[in-house]
């Protein structure tokens, strides 16, 4: 089964005090660098237990853009998006035996207090569905 596991870090959320948010110029140093190393170790371990399809971190919301299709016409809005309630900071796309196994790995993410990890199965349509 394929899963998308989303990291929703507290430091990207709209309710986080500005002095605690990560900016586009953020470079991990000291304690933050150690946290990044732990995440790298977790990623390596997950990569050995599952088939890793893709993994990456995302820049802050201020550098993004949103394309909405209200009325059928694409409308581009540059970030940050005031109406955002949760901001995704990174993702893992992997294949593993079951939802239970994926949840084991979701629980092992070296997250910080206030972070959230969301696990979503990927639709897998039977072969020939769109023939």
Automatic annotation (TrEMBL):
- Database matches in InterPro entries: Dimeric_a/b-barrel, YCII
Q: Where is the signal peptide?
A: none
Kindly give the Pfam families that the UniProt entry links to this protein.
YCII
Domain YCII-related: residue ranges: 31-125
Which PANTHER family does the entry mention? Answer: BLL7171 PROTEIN-RELATED
Which family, according to UniProt? Belongs to the YciI family.
Q: What is the recorded name of this protein?
A: YciI family protein
